[in-house]
Amino acid sequence: MAEDFFDPVTETIEDLGRKGFRLIQRKDGFRFGEDTVLLAYYAAEVAPKFKRGTKALDLGAGCGASGVLLAARRPDVRIDGIEIDAASFNVFSRNVRMNGLIDRVRPIQGDIRDFPDARNVLCASYDFVFFNPPYGNPNCGPVTQPENKTESLRNARFEINGRLVDFFKTAADALRPGGIMAMVHRSVRLPEAMRVLLENGLQPIGLRMIHPRADARATAFLLSARKGGKPGGFFAEAPLILRNGDMIMTEEMNRIYTDGE
Fold first, then answer.
1. CB atoms inside a 10 Å sphere around CB 214
2. DSSP track, 201-257
3. Rounded mean pLDDT of 198-222?
4. What is the pTM of this model?
5. Domain 2-258 has CATH 3.90.930.50
6. Residue 95 confidence (pLDDT) above 70
7. How many CB atoms lie within 10 A of CB 36?
8. What is the spatial distance between Cα 81 and Cα 129, in angstroms, rounded to a whole number?
9. I need a surface site. Which of 92, 121, 135, 146 has the fewest CB within 10 A?
10. Does a cis peptide bond (omega within 30 degrees of 0) precede residue 116?
11. Mean per-residue pLDDT for 211-216?
12. Would you state the pLDDT for residue 143?
């Protein structure tokens, strides 16, 4: 029973609309949104496939939303998820148990900057790495104050426990040669992302810009790269449009949310 896994006073349970999977979230913590859904969709598309199964690593897993959604889309993927925040890690662990994913998703409490660690997380051993890093740079603009929001929320929104460069460095260390990484981030960080991934031996192979409407500027992007890849294989996909002029979800967005229910 779901009631055995969550506290209705401080938490909610959301139906993910996919094969009966659900997600516990703290009412006062970071709550997953469209970027999480889009990352899981993109990850399912670009993650390599092997007869032996695909070994994946989720950096900054939070409550496990991206990992649970990816597990729902790709039964062949086995996921290790690293999360530093104790409260988020606790929710992540319960989400894994509630959804019956103990054999497929392994929550690991740790700092992505300390990779690898002593919990059987090995360098150059993953086929796929994915992440949705904090969007806010604490050196640019105000940081949410602890008296207004929980520490977990601040950690999820701002680069307090890892900068963008730390995510790319850890991804490069974790991936086997030829392995693939995928991420979602704000469009204003795209130049930095391209520069840093190349500095860490990751070759961009795919890019998809995300637009709130067809006539609006891109607000986010989905990016994939290969460890040790050679230049020349990069492609920019058609933009992903979230809503039409009436602010109704586009057909593609509806498919992303409902395909495989």
1. 12
2. TEEEEEEEEEESSTTS---EEEEEEEETPPTT--EEPPPEE-B-TTSPBPHHHHHHH
3. 97
4. 0.88
5. no
6. yes
7. 21
8. 10
9. 146
10. yes
11. 96
12. 47
